Amino acid sequence: MGIYVNQVGYLPNAEKVAVSTFPCNFQLICADTQHSVFDGTTSPAKEDACAGENVYSIDFSCIHTPGRYYILAGNGEKSHTFQIDDHVYDELKKNLMKAFYYQRCGCSLKSEHAGIYTHDACHTAPSIFLEDYISKAPNPERFDMTGGWHDAGDFGRYTSPGAVALGHLLYAYELFPKSLQMNLNIPESGSAMPDFLSECLYELKWMLKMQAPSGGCYHKLTSFNHIDFIMPEEDHAQFMIYPVSSMATADFAAVMALASRIYKDWLPDFAADALAAARRAWNWLETNPYVGFYNPEGSNTGEYDDECDLDERLWASAELLRTDKENAPDYYKRLKEYSAMSLGKTDFGWTDVSGFATLTVLIDPSHSAKDLEEEYRKILFQEADRLCQLQKNSGYHLAMAPEDFVWGSNMVVCNRSMLLILAGLLSEKEESEKYRTAALNQLHYLLGCNALDISYVTGFGENAFKNPHNRVTFADGIDLPMPGWVSGGPFKTPCDPAAEAAIAPGTAPMKCYVDDVGSYSTNEITIYWNSPAVFMTAFFSSQKETS
Ligand code: G3I
Ligand code: 9MR
Ligand code: ZN
Fold first, then answer.
1. What is the pLDDT of residues 287-299, one digit of tens each?
2. Is any atom of ligand 1 closer than 6 Å to the C-beta of 162?
3. Residue among 45, 86, 59 at smallest CA distance from 5
4. Structural domains of the chain, with CATH
5. Residue 319 CB contacts under 8 Å (≥ 6 apart), including other chains
6. Ligand 2 centre from 311 Cα, in Å?
7. pLDDT tens-place string over residues 436-487
8. Which atom of ligand 1 is nearest to the CA of 153?
9. Is any atom of ligand 2 closer than 6 Å to the C-beta of 300?
């Protein structure tokens, strides 16, 4: 039995809804004065298919006064305390972004930037090709592949997931630059360029190393197997450059084109290099068919296998069309071809990046793909309306169906919020408000308005999760994890020993989660689960600059 709220809080002028598992009369209590400022009654029961239970809505949208509050039911049951404030997501946004700094590989994290979460430089040894490792070549060629962000709770660095994270982040910057002028307290702080862009540059510079002389891009840089739970600087396993894949190459082309546009005024030389790299990747794509990737026998680091590279090629063509005016007709031809294929065009995840094509076509101020815009708009709004309908059917006001609780379901939650934000930006008045409200409901779920009463961001909310599947968190000897990490979240068919031991078969999808460091299938962290949350919070605080 409980009353579940967004534990961080609500914007004064937005809709404010909490959920309880029982019908009641309730009061909204100001936590500082202990006075009731509003009382009401829950809405009629609604069955929630994802949570497998009946729930009741608590609406206190009429309260706009900033402050700290909690909800008190007639039977004495209380919610967590939360804030109502215009700046309620500012610290969250900053910490979600600072999390990327903590993933930096190849440099030491010093106390002046990392606080108590320091560690020495990691993974600085040269890498070799996988073939040489497998054949035990006596004198393998060695390469400096240092840099980039650790992907997740493991120390691997993978091209496509990195590109997807940068996609979320750089589009957020393109759309909400004011909101992302933050002091992140990173080594580059104080330079002319915004810290946000400096942090992204750390990954981009590494990613440039992932391009082969052919123009194709290596799928990943990892050890042969996942290592034990040790600090990154203690990991001396050989890192290997795995073969080129067409998926990695197309994601790389897209994100380098995007980066060359974003950094043009700040770092013209880097922007030129990024564009040249994107063109080389594009030329490789034009002369090579699908090249997949599977782990070699015995290797278990992240596979990120993808049977279809057309959505990645679609994104690359849409991005290059916007950025590289010189070769526009070539990109346009391909964009039209890929657009005519039955690709989803609404997803922003590593298996399906086609939503990024929709996003970039529709936000392009120069309308480079004008005659495709109508079709893309139609697809976008169809999906946005489907998501709104899902929320209407959901007791938790969440645009998720039971089958959507995949590994990393919180990314699905956040990506759907991104799509709704985009729909809101591209529509007017009441329509825009409707999509914005729906987008915000996704954030409320992430921050505690869910069947487990848990905030899926470390350090944010009275009941924030604390035990991410993250080697650093486990090995650093510090009790609490760094703040600002998004958990993968509930997975309807959890597949790790910790989750299997804790979650009974038949548990409702929204409850298939365990806050256990061992649970990689429900409680890991990754760069591309944080990045869409940065996008969301950048939007919901986009009118203000923060320091
Ligand atoms: O492709 C099928 C699809 O056809 C089907 O409809 C769907 C239904 O569940 O499943 C799809 O495959 C899933 C795939 O992700 C794509 O979404 C798999 O079941 C699922 O197990 C797989 O999970 C991935 C997991 O690695 C295991 O491969 C996660 O998305 C991915 O985020 C995760 O990535 C790991 C890296 O390998 C290593 N680093 C950490 C990172 C996060 O846990
Ligand atoms: O820690 C690894 C995590 O990053 C991956 O997402 C996950 C799936 O690839 O694998 C984790 O590593 C486990 C390995 O697969 C099996 N042995 C135990 C490892 C740590 O729990
Ligand atoms: Zn490292």
1. 999 999 999 999 9
2. no
3. 59
4. 1-86+369-547 (1.50.10.10), 89-95+125-367 (1.50.10.10)
5. 253, 254, 255, 257, 258, 278, 356, 357, 360
6. 28
7. 999 999 999 999 999 999 999 999 999 999 999 999 999 999 999 999 999 9
8. 40
9. yes
